[in-house]
Amino acid sequence: MKNNPPKSSEVFNKLLTWILVLVVLGIWGSIVYQLVVDTGAGKGTQATDESSPSIVSGMNTYRYTADVRDPFQPLALTQKEVPVKRVVSAPPPLWVPPPFKLTGIIENRAKKTAVVEGSNGETYFLVEGDSVGGVKIVAIEKEKVAYRYANQEKEWMIER
Fold first, then answer.
1. Residue 73 placed within a domain
2. In CATH, what number is assigned to the domain containing residue 118?
3. Is residue 117, in this structure, part of any structural domain at all?
4. Is 141 helix (H, G, I), strand (E, B) or coil?
5. Structural domain containing residue 108
6. What's the domain count of the chain?
7. Tens place of pLDDT per residue across the chain (160 aa)
8. Contact criterion met (CB below 8 Å) for 130 and 137
9. From CA 146, how far away is CA 137, in angstroms rounded?
10. Are 103 and 131 in contact (CB under 8 A)?
11. How far apart are CA 54 and CA 60, in angstroms?
């Protein structure tokens, strides 16, 4: 067999692989170095800062300084709480429409009559000023009837 010279892309791939291996080894080396320096493992010294753990008989212990409030304890009340009496008023009553439905308007020369059907199926023929079931007819026009019910003025429109 013949020895074929390596292609330029193969040489480039091998070179890139070795460069990446060296970079990875350098990164891991710096991580290990930082761990050794930060923990002081090589010096045989103990940490003396109050916020860092101190080594006592092989156990990690921490010193707690109570310069902040413990979030798991209730707040200390400085003033006696006084219950507040609130006056609750009843909400205003909702307006409920009358149990009637305008079914038609009859015009006879100068007189107009509203044909109103009750919820029980009864039919009423009402002119202006008439009242039935708390509903007073105020005005009758060609397409609508104005009425007063529960101290409010409303209108019925002809349903087509």
1. no
2. 2.30.30.830
3. yes
4. coil
5. 100-157
6. 2
7. 566 766 788 889 999 999 999 999 999 999 998 888 877 655 554 545 555 554 555 567 777 676 777 778 777 655 566 677 788 888 877 778 788 889 999 998 888 999 999 888 899 999 999 999 889 999 999 889 999 988 889 898 887 6
8. yes
9. 6
10. no
11. 6
